[in-house]
Amino acid sequence: xxxxxxxTLKAKDVNASNGDGKTKFKISDLDFYYGDFHALKNLNxxxxxxxxxxxxxxxxxxxxxxxxxxxRMQDLVSYAKVDGLISLDGQDIYQKNYDVNELRKRVGMVFxxxxxxxxxxxxxxxxxxRTHGIKDxxxxxxxxxxxxxxxxxxxxxxxxxxxxxxDISGGQQQRICIARAIANGPEVLLMDEPTSALDPISTNKIxxxxxxxxxxxxxxxxxxxxxxxxxxxxxxxxFLNGEVIEFDxxxxxxxxxxxxxxxxxxxxxxx
Amino acid sequence: xxxxFSEKFMKYVFMFCALISIISILLIFYFIFxxxxxxxxxxxxxLEFDGGLPFLTEKGFLDVIFGTNWRPNASTPSFGxxxxxxxxxxxxxGAIIVGVPIGVLTxxxxxxxxxxxxxxxxKPAINLMAAIPSIVYGFFALQILVPLMRNIMPxxxxxxxxxxxxxxxxxxxxxxxxxxxxxxxxxxxFYQASVGLGATHERSVMRVVVPAASSGILSSIILGIGRxxxxxxxxxxxxxxxxxIPDSLSDGVRTLTTNIVLEMGYASGDHxxxxxxxxxxxxxxxxxxxxxxxxxxxRGEQK
Amino acid sequence: xxxxxxTKFLVWGSALFTLGVLAYIILFILWxxxxxxxxxxxxxxxxxxxxxxxxxxxxxxxxxxxxLLIAAPIGVFTAFYLVEYADRGSRFLRxxxxxxxxxxxxxxxxxxxxxxxxxxxxxxxxxxxxxxxxTITIMILPVIISSTEEALLSVDNSLRMGSLALGAGxxxxxxxxxxxxxxxxxxxxxxxxxxxxxxxxxxxxYTMGSSSGMINNLTSSGRTLAVHMFVLxxxxxxxxxxxxxxxxxxxxxLIINSLSTFIGNKLGSGGK
Lengths: 271, 303, 272
Prior knowledge:
- The structure holds three protein chains of three kinds.
- By secondary structure, chain A is an alpha/beta fold.
- Chain A has helices at about 65-70, 100-105, 120-130, 135-150, 155, 170-185, 200-215, 225-230, 250-255, 260-265, and strands at about 25-35, 35-50, 50-55, 80-90, 90, 105-110, 190, 220, 235-240, 245-250.
- Chain A contains ten helices and ten strands.
- In chain A, α3 runs parallel beside α6 (about 170-185) and α4 crosses α6 (about 170-185).
- Chain A is globular.
- The two termini of chain A are about 20 Å apart.
- Chain B folds into two domains: about 1-80, no CATH class; about 80-300, MetI-like fold.
- Chain C has a single domain, classed as MetI-like fold (Orthogonal Bundle).
- Chain C is built from ten helices and no strands.
- Chain C has helices at about 5-35, 55-85, 90-105, 110-120, 130-155, 155-165, 170-200, 200-205, 225-235, 240-270.
- Chain C starts with 5 loop residues before the first helix and ends with a helix.
- The chains are: A alpha/beta, B mainly alpha, C mainly alpha.
- Chains in contact: A-C, B-C.
- Chains B and C meet through α1, α4, α5, α6 and α10 of B and α1, α2, α3, α4 and α5 of C.
């Protein structure tokens, strides 16, 4: 039984899901290999639209690996092999001639360590849109402002848009990266432990932000921090050794998990 | 997709540029070692080989490499390049004797004894030394060293000793640069352990830190050897350039490099071929030295 | 009682000796060279009276400019391939590296001989600027390749990841994200190459020749400052002019070196 003093559902109870049950990503029988290492085993999952899905589990169990298959960032690893089906809105993203750059426009990513380009804040945000063909400066101005508002950082940086993005604090940098991802107009946001490198105040701000983001985007977040998962996600998947042990509503996972291993992890017996 | 095409295209552009290095080195090898060219002769178009290897096979490998008579324009020409091989070796050896002790000690100074304010002068000074054109060094030696030598030893001052001293000075920045970096790369914990046992600064540096940097220092010496053996223009001004095996330090000497530059302008036929063969021998020396350098460096990094 | 410290004596002595030799060389040349300067040395047309170095200066500038124009893109693109595209450990990669390393080790006289056999004779360019420029281009290629490579490798990989994750593709990532960050390193490689070209004489003597006149076009023979310096030293007639040429060379080298240090500092602050 999960009597977890370590897990508290925050007052801003975010577990009222927005989703209407529509599937954004469907993963069927996914096997993933790094060379000989079988990193993901027979994964099956439906990721729901407009919902925050969290991946939790101990280090090295495949959460980030799986996340990176969803926007085909694993393509960059030459010895990675993907078997099985990952479909976005019903289309297999690994099929031949699938435009991977278009995929990454629709499925944005925020990394664990903030990685803004050493360019101005404006140029960072405008990078995605410019890449995908938007040249009109009025249009870009508008996108930049909307994205920075969407990342809840517009007021803090609106007077320093031409300041170098690497000159601001880590927490602000990460929100710039979120704004940068949003500027592309994605449908999905993949977040790989986005607050693990940040201080508690910045973490708090970003968690609030994620709560707002799910109105417009499907959010998938990998986190080491169980409390975070419990605070902000609607659905949670528990990973162990490359497999999804349990995948359910967050409330269920944290109060009445069905698998003993899930229970053990939640209660801190390992991990 | 438009973008896919330009991505693929540029990849091949980049790859092609990379090929240019390969093509260049192959061309150089070809012209120096094989040298097959189609030439117009009175007998029609003929494929001639004027590279080093054909020359050596034609004139006899031993006769050339170990021959002591270099008389390419005599009525019965002889193409022994042994004097030049020995000249290169001796002059390089001399450079090492002059340059290594001073260079390594200077490197030790810069890494472990130099006050920070002085370092701000030393470091750019060594960089400057590395950047001075060899011809300027050669001219300097011509104006200062040669008259000096003329006064203290027989001959006109243009000899093996002068060349060795000049080369020794020229390879100083090479040796200092790499040795200093290696000494600095030694983990500070070694030094601290030694000092912690009560050893003096000098002892700790010389007995612990410098030995730990020995493979880097060795690499720098090998690099210096490579530089010395490849130097031409400065050496040709002061070495005397007589193509015979020297008996004493005051004898003039010719190296493989100066042999080429002295006669390249007017040599033809067999004579020119002999010079190409000289270049081939030099090239082999350099490749051997370079390979030794790579091995020593790799071994050093493994540790 | 102060004990005589042999080690301290030796290291200080060597260092001061090294510095002293450098100072001596530079001061000696400037001491003799500055008084030897006169306007005639910079006249456009060379005569045996004025022994002008102006043609040599112009030839040097043209050589630097044109050989960089060819070598820099080739070298930078090669480095792009090596760092951004090639599979780690592929055989092709190792071959390219071997070629580049070997090229870097070739002595300049061998380059000169090759240039003469290939460009001057085989390609029938004669002693000409173009033959010299092409020879120099091959010679500086490894310098540009390795410094660009180093600069590219020092770019934080997370920047590449960020760009690719936004759907930018490899090519755009290289040109809009990686290259700007690597630029100081690339520039310092180019400056290094310029330094080498300025100091080079053996590779040019028998490719560009040693004609003393001003360049007419790329097929005319000529000399760079270093070659001019060599000819003057060798002939032994125009010692004063030789000192003046050496002075100009040293000034040029000082400028190039300062530029390099300046960019090196920029690298320290801007880079990663």
